[in-house]
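Work Package 4 report. The design task specified in the project plan requires that, given a folded chain encoded as structure tokens, an amino acid be chosen for each position. We show below one input record used in the internal validation round.
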């Protein structure tokens, strides 16, 4: 008796820890189906020790994928080639293979800046910006902000202060100022790049404790309901945006890297909305 036929669809994956909450499989599989591609996308929890080799194996086997917390910086040494965005941020969130080499890019920059332009278009002041976190997502956010007009000051806070100080020194830009205490700041915009709030329990900071109320809160965390930080903003009457918009924009950019063309229009956004409704 013959065994079950092997699934020959190209395999793509999001690599991280945790990844069970990720909606990336829903939106990428919807795009694959709409485009008629023989490919599938899965979420795979991987450790620090194995993330680089698993990334390379997926790419060299004809697939690719994305990298999320906490591995975006860790996988960079495993790339054969990378884009300027990876060189500038020191982080990679998208990978694939071309001509026998594993390539990496950071589409978080495009994703965040697309969301930033929409969210801040009507704000009278966009600076200073308080960025929470000093990992791979923070690097992408800072790279975009420092190349954006109207940003005169970025305040950088991380629970481990030395990491924020090290990142600020690496960026070597006088507009980036590491903080030891976020409470003393009076930002126009707060951007959370940490994974705190991903399970819907706690926020990374208490907005009420800031020296002044911000005009806007951007939380890169997302879920089927408002994140803890966005709920705080709502109570204070502050506008807020979660990470769903950035998720779709960076996913569309990732798809374009893998296949050399944009995904079918609006498919990913519709799939994300459906996935969020399905978790209610």
């Amino acid at each position: 008796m013959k065994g079950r036929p092997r699934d020959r669809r190209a395999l793509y994956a999001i690599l991280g820890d945790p990844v069970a909450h990720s909606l990336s499989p829903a939106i990428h599989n919807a795009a694959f189906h709409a485009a008629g591609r023989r490919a599938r996308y899965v979420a795979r929890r991987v450790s620090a020790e194995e993330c680089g080799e698993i990334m390379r194996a997926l790419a060299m086997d004809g697939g690719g994928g994305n990298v999320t917390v906490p591995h975006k910086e860790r996988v960079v040494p495993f790339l054969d080639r990378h884009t300027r965005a990876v060189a500038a941020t020191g982080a990679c969130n998208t990978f694939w293979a071309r001509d026998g080499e594993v390539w990496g890019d950071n589409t978080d920059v495009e994703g965040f800046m697309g969301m930033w332009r929409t969210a801040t278009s009507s704000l009278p002041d966009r600076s200073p910006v308080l960025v929470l976190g000093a990992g791979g997502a923070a690097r992408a956010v800072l790279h975009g902000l420092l190349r954006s007009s109207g940003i005169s000051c970025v305040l950088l806070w991380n629970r481990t202060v030395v990491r924020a100080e090290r990142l600020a020194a690496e960026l070597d830009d006088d507009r980036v100022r590491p903080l030891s205490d976020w409470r003393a700041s009076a930002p126009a915009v707060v951007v959370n790049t940490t994974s705190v709030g991903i399970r819907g329990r706690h926020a990374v900071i208490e907005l009420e404790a800031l020296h002044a109320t911000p005009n806007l809160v951007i939380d890169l965390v997302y879920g089927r309901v408002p994140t803890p930080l966005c709920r705080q903003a709502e109570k204070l009457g502050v506008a807020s945006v979660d990470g769903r918009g950035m998720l779709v924009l960076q996913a569309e950019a990732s798809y374009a890297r893998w296949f050399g063309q944009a995904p079918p229009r609006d498919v990913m956004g519709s799939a994300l909305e459906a996935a969020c409704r399905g978790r209610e």
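The chain is about 35% helix and 20% strand. Validation will be extended to a larger panel in the next phase.
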